[in-house]
# Entry
Amino acid sequence: MSKSPDRCVPSTADGLACCVPLAREPITVEQAAGAASMLKAVADPARLRLLSLVLSHEGGEACVCDLLPYFDLSQPTISHHLKVLHDAGLLHRKKRGTWVYYIARPEAMHALGSLFAAAAAPTLAGAGA
Amino acid sequence: MSKSPDRCVPSTADGLACCVPLAREPITVEQAAGAASMLKAVADPARLRLLSLVLSHEGGEACVCDLLPYFDLSQPTISHHLKVLHDAGLLHRKKRGTWVYYIARPEAMHALGSLFAAAAAPTLAGAGA
DNA sequence: CCACGACATCGACCGATGTCGATATTGCTC
DNA sequence: GAGCAATATCGACATCGGTCGATGTCGTGG
# Structure
């Protein structure tokens, strides 16, 4: 019954839990660890705003110098946050001359969104049991 | 065109950022703080698994004694994690006799899902600018 | 080649957080 | 009411994580 594979291959090769909805069935310890590492990256006001700024910036990309004016934080701190987002697979780095541009990775955004997508519908569990 | 108010009233009265997508435009400092507090709650493997277990449990609800066997953690620790999820507005508490049942709040699940929903689509920013 | 500007790395500090054992609270049962 | 079972609270401990200043690296331009 719970045989709908969606259109999602479990590309855990990237370290991304592609489609692992929280509902329907309990996630495994490994899935929880992977998803939590991604969520930890965005569970910070500064990083959340950085991600949002990159996403909404012209062309979907932004360099550090574009982002700095939005914060009261030091440049090393911003750089650190960007590194956290990059290490979590949420941001892609592209070097252009002296500047480093960051671009959000749609796969990661999709992975995060799909986590809670199925959970938003009310009374979903127990219907099949 | 960027005038679509969706069907979402900003019910920040709950402390929930109802529909605050990351993309399209930069989120405010307050929105980031609110969303981050919710994300912090789920940015932990144990709590993520707890949420998933509650969601997929029969009837969409589970008491602490149902959840305990799934973990190697002590009962106070599980209780603590459930409190964190409850304080973040992700779980609802219902007392029935000696047992306390936890139920996931669909509004909160929707709020988390909508954060990344719009960000999953590629090349969304810069199109309107 | 040298100076400068953009960004990353390092080391240190300190508050936040996950974990435990012990204990308190609440409700059921006999 | 006494005892027990389910859950929450408390205090302590160790580790994690965000922040900074100082410094290193790399590319550009004079």
